[in-house]
Amino acid sequence: MSIRILAVSGSSRRESLNQKLLDLAAHGARDAGATVTSIRLADFALPLYDGDLEAEHGLPAEALRLQQEFARHDALLIATPEYNGGYTAALKNALDWVSRPQPDGTSGVALFAGKVAAMVSASPGPLGGLRSQMGMRTVLDKLGVLVIPESFALGLAHQAFDAEGRLNDKGAEKAVIQVGVALNRTATRHTAG
User: Fold this and answer.
1) What is the mean pLDDT of residues 10-19?
2) Contacts for 112 with CB less than 8 Å, ≥ 6 apart
3) In whole angstroms, what is the distance from residue 82 CA to residue 99 CA?
4) Among 6, 21, 63, 173, whose Cα sits 20 to 30 Å from the Cα of 160?
5) 41 burial class (0-12, 13-18, 19+ CB within 10 angstroms)?
6) What are the angstrom distances between the C-alpha of 131 and each of 41, 52, 153, 183?
7) Do the Cβ atoms of 114 and 144 come closer than 8 Å?
8) What would the mean pLDDT of 67-91 be, rounded to a whole number?
9) Residue 13 has pLDDT above 90, yes or no
10) Does residue 34 have a pLDDT over 90?
């Protein structure tokens, strides 16, 4: 049975550089034998997390749908854009909703605990989103996710892609693809153990 990877981008932009990078890493995971499902957070109409809203109305339907996606997958491939030195509000909000108790009372944190994740990021800045990755690693660690050391941060990303969405630097492209390969390899070993 192949590893099921959920690929999520923290960007909601239609022509997102992070989505392009995520697609390359997902390609590597697929070539390594994984089944990859890519979702866009923009396709989930999630309100900002609000404990009062949850207490009065329960989990929003879109949060439940997102929880189901996390439940169906063994590993996470996350593209974490960098906005003002941190991860996006959309990505953090999605993780906050997924972590809430499920309808059967099971902790939503259980949807993260023990999963393996890899991160990529793209930014017009020279650091390529490294600060976003560091912040997101802290959040994922808290949720019990094993974040693998293989990652990729693409600086000057607005100049890095060709018209077909491939990286101009073939060495960098190979490194991004290897993030997906490494995620599949580690998740396979982790779920077998």
Assistant:
1) 90
2) 70, 95, 98, 99, 140, 143, 144, 145
3) 22
4) 6
5) middle
6) 21, 31, 10, 21
7) yes
8) 95
9) no
10) yes
What are 167's two structure tokens?
A: 């990286």
pLDDT classification of 102: cutoffs 50, 70, 90: very high
3-class SS of residue 167: strand
pLDDT score, position 129 = 93
- pLDDT tens across 89-100, in order? 999 999 999 999
User: Across the chain, which distance is largest between two alpha carbons, in Å?
Assistant: 52
Alpha-carbon gap, residue 99 to 83, rounded angstroms = 23
Higher pLDDT, 12 or 32: 32
Question: How many angstroms separate the first and last alpha carbons of the chain?
Answer: 14
Tokens found for residue 38: 């890519």
Burial of 147 (C-beta count, 10 Å sphere; 0-12/13-18/19+): buried
Residue 7 backbone phi and psi in degrees, to 5: -100, 120
Q: What are the Cα distances from residue 73, in Å, to 5, 49, 82, 115, 174?
A: 6, 23, 25, 9, 25
Q: How many Å apart are CA 148 and CA 19, to the nearest integer?
A: 20
Rounded-to-integer distance, Cα 150 and Cα 163, Å? 27
